Amino acid sequence: MAGGVMRGRARGAIPSRLVGALGASALGAFVLAACSQTSRVGDAPDGPTLAKSNKAVAVMRLGVAGNACENVGVWLGVREGRGYRLHTPVRVINVRSLYDPPVAEVELPPGEYHIVSYACGTARGARQMASLDKATGLVRTSYASFSVAAGEVVNVGKFNFHASRVGLNAFGRPFRVTVTVTDWPLEELELYKQRRPALYAAMNTRLMNVTPRGPSDEDDNCDTLLALKAEGKVQNIPESCAAGTDSVPPAKTAASGQPR
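Above: the chain's sequence. Below: its structure in token form.
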């Protein structure tokens, strides 16, 4: 439900993990470098103009996962089979600025979008949390979702992402992930009104929906599980690992189920 909470466990993933599967060009559009800018749309598109161009604007506040985060970002994805295809990167640079509201704006075609990755940029570089299927190039996990219609300017809320280590399992050091979606703090709402008055006037709030289930430990160990299955060391693997691979029988890839 909107404004709800999702908790799950997942392995941490750094940007280099995406380079191997998606190519440097895809990751390069998302890197939270010093030269990047907060995602912004043009000069205050109004509803009729957006509707005529069959576009909408989503406005979102991205929370920080830890005190060290200076820049934050997410990838928006769209459904494709059992996974999500990367669609649009969204950034907030200098998230603690006292002058600029830490809010991102993105112009999108009408439809449903999912937050499928979260990145925190610090003085040491960027770290990213995502659950990627290397065989298909799709992301397995949606953390939250929202929909927009042509002509809308929608405030989808504040996306809060927290990840903490929870110990050891057979394949590595998993994280516990907690996601919440809330309204913006009142002082940030007022700051946005001052800095972006036309968009603020056109904006309606419709909080994104938190995805009920987060990534599982098994899903984030797909490469290991697939290799062990090929060696005959394990028999069963999760459906999300089997989807889109050539290393399992068709009966497995055709199994029903929803992305997590």
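The chain has one domain: 5-217.
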